Every structure is written in C-alpha cells, then in structure tokens.
UniProtKB/TrEMBL annotation:
Organism lineage: Eukaryota, Metazoa, Chordata, Craniata, Vertebrata
Organism: Tetraodon nigroviridis
SUPFAM superfamilies in alphabetical order: Class II aaRS and biotin synthetases
Family: Belongs to the class-II aminoacyl-tRNA synthetase family. Phe-tRNA synthetase alpha subunit type 2 subfamily.
Protein name as annotated: phenylalanine--tRNA ligase
Domain Aminoacyl-transfer RNA synthetases class-II family profile: 20-186
A Pfam family hit: tRNA-synt_2d
GO terms classed as biological process: phenylalanyl-tRNA aminoacylation
Entry's localization field: Cytoplasm
Principal localisation: cytoplasm
Cross-referenced InterPro entries: aa-tRNA-synth_II (IPR006195), aa-tRNA-synth_II/BPL/LPL (IPR045864), Phe-tRNA-synth_IIc_asu (IPR004529), Phenylalanyl-tRNA_Synthase (IPR002319)
C-alpha cells in the first residue's frame, strides 16, 4: 500500500514493530477511553513516566527523561483553566517566571508550549507542552460532547535544573551526578 502524499511507503510489518514511547499521551488516551465507558464524573489523572527521544545531548536535552503527564476532564474547562493549573503547579515548585507560547499538536487545540526562565543560562527554557484535547479525539471514545479535557506533558529534569540552578541537564543523570550536591540538597518540597 502506498501513501505517496506522505512521501513514504507504508508497510504493515513496520507499523507493528515495538518502539520506545516518545511521550505519554497514549496512556492519557487509554485512561480517557476507560472513563468514557462509565457515567461521566470529573476526573484528574497524573503520572510520571520515562520517555525516549532521538535527541542530540546538550545542556538542556537528554535522550531519556521523565515526563510529568496531567489530564483533567470536566465540564466547561478553558485555556485559562489550563494556564492556571500550570502556573499553580510551577509556583508550588518555586518556579514563577513562566511564559506560554502558542504551538501545534495534532491532538490538542489550542496548544501551548510552556517556558521558564533559567537564571544561570540567561534564557527561557521549554519545560513542557499543553493543550485542550480536540473533540475529534474525545467524541469517538464516547465522552459527552460538553466535556473538555485539558492536558500537559512536562519535563521533570528541566524544572529541576531551574529550581536548583544547574546549568547542564546531564549533571542530573548518570555518571555526572554530583553525589555531594544530592546529599546537600533537600528533597524537592512544595512551597506554600
């Protein structure tokens, strides 16, 4: 079967190969499908999972990292609700300099990238992506038409860099971890 408008030859055996997950949205979709099988009531899902990317390693990129996934399903949720949840989440971590930038995601609309200012690097660093799930994704699952779902996928390592003033993300994993820094630093605590 040929799909030349996408400039590649689609093959069933290739599509059935296992791959390491690049994001956790598939888990969110599965949870929303399960939610649609019962009488709807508002829910919040939250997970932290490892994801894998074909990234060039540098001060802000890892090939493997942890993704913080959040999903809220309720009636009448808006982009303002999503921004408020993300602002509150980062504020509780002690990170208050945030920017939101419009973005494209195939499964959410509107979509936004989330940036936080890194004092040591003197630049804005992307810490996540977010959006409101598109009706085309929710309705086939069987969720009620008037239900909105806000969702986000955030890096765990980049906010950690910003909070603790670490300039190189590779210092958080593997052989470059400064064990004295780990010993001396308090565990990440939510600030009031």
């Amino acid at each position: 079967m040929s799909y030349m408008r996408y400039k590649y030859e689609w093959k069933l055996e290739e599509a059935q190969k296992n791959i390491l997950r690049t994001h956790t949205t598939a888990v969110s979709a599965r949870m929303l499908y399960k939610l649609a099988q019962v009488k709807f009531s508002p829910v919040k899902y939250f997970s932290i999972d490892r994801v894998f990317r074909n990234e060039t390693l540098d001060a802000t990129h890892l090939a493997e990292f942890h993704q913080i996934e959040g999903v809220v399903a309720d009636y009448g949720l808006t982009l303002g609700d999503l921004m408020g949840v993300l602002h509150q989440f980062f504020t509780k971590l002690g990170i208050t300099k945030l920017r939101f930038k419009p973005a494209y995601n195939p499964y959410t609309e509107p979509s936004m990238e989330v940036f936080s200012y890194h004092e040591g690097l003197k630049k804005w660093v992307e810490v996540g992506n977010s959006g409101i799930f598109r009706p085309e994704m929710l309705l086939p699952m069987g969720l009620p038409e008037d239900v909105s779902v806000i969702a986000w996928g955030l890096s765990l390592e980049r906010p950690t860099m910003i909070k603790y003033g670490i300039n190189n993300i590779r210092e958080l994993v593997g052989h470059k971890v400064n064990l004295q820094m780990v010993y001396d630093s308090p565990l990440c605590r939510l600030e009031s």
